[in-house]
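User: My advisor asked me to double-check a structure prediction for Methyltransferase domain-containing protein before group meeting. I don't want to rely on an old file, so could you generate it fresh from this sequence?
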Amino acid sequence: MNKVGGCKSCRFCGGSLFDFVDLGMSPLCESFVPEDRLNIAERFYPLAAFVCGSCFLVQLEEYVAPEEIFSEYAYFSGFSDAWLKHAERYVEMIAEKLCLGRASKVVEIGSNDGYLLQYFVKKGISVLGVEPAINVAAAARQRGVETLTRFFGAGVARELAGAGTKADLIVANNVMAQVPELNSFVEGIGILLEPDGVCTVEFPHLLRTILGNQFDQIYHEHFSYFSALTVRKIFEAHGLRIFDIEELWTHGGSLRLYACRADSAKYPTQSSVSRIIQQEREAGLDRVDAYARFAHQVRDTKRKILTFLIEAKNAGKSIAGYGAPGKGNTLLNYCGVRTDFIDYTVDRNPYKQGMYLPGTRIPIYAPDKIAATRPDYVMILPWNLREEIAGQLGYVRDWGAKFVVPIPEVTVF
Ligand SMILES: [Zn+2]
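Assistant: Sure, here is a fresh prediction for Methyltransferase domain-containing protein from the sequence you gave:
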């Protein structure tokens, strides 16, 4: 396994970095191209991930400043029915588990358009969202979700705590990956928590990413990729204890970690913590050499995707995409797939309709384009939502079309 030269070191522990996977050059996956910029160059950045030889944190270099990525962001969580249901169920579960009521305070970091906090608001629980993207935060405020437009870290946590805001619950779902200053972020959680407060964090599970060939989880907006064993180290370094872990279906397999202050005795550590860390050890996630296999799996997956596309086009078939998620852009750019294979894609998010995918310049339409053009195949780019999407698009069977998912392996159904 190749040790990376130069001055690169782990963003958590400062350890040496080793190659994990190199996906070539790619544009920012949420930087959709409007029609009037089609003749203008896009910026491409290296998309290479490394693993730390000491703490096994998988990470990208900070190629792009977070301000450039997140100040205006096209990702609105509120456009997926499955996401909304996931959020609502979480709120029901956690409010009961922690006995949250009108005197409680919930803070969500990376609160997006308020899709999750709105369910706490309905229960009369006081909330604060922290969300750096100005356009997305504005949508949250329209929903009645109080939102602070800042990047969260120890500094913001100290300001809030100094002004009397402490949290009974901190929610950090799918945001820790987007934080370059990881230590400041986790330190901030400790500062903001009430003595017996709880923090839950969700992230795509690195174990599932590796076992499921999910290289399209890697993009510039995600600086870090987590296993439970690494997150436990990071939280312990900042005086926090992981006391429970749940496995979730989201993003192709995620973890939800429950953490409290190390000095809180309220929540005993459950056996789920050692069980999941043991699974990770058995898969080799505590040995740097085991990470080297992933790059081979990724190249093999690319060849299978291209084989399917070439054979379909040779047979005279037409292919449309469904969805314009970040992961789709990593996949299409890495595989070199443009309108030579996929005529167009569709997305329910009106913000993306009429734009073009970054790098590949595949046009994005509203979903009714599919019924108008009757493609032979519909490739579902957010393959993690395949059941939901295939259900919504059941009518394509009327003209004999089939669905395709590219990950974990090309599957036609
Ligand atoms: Zn490290």
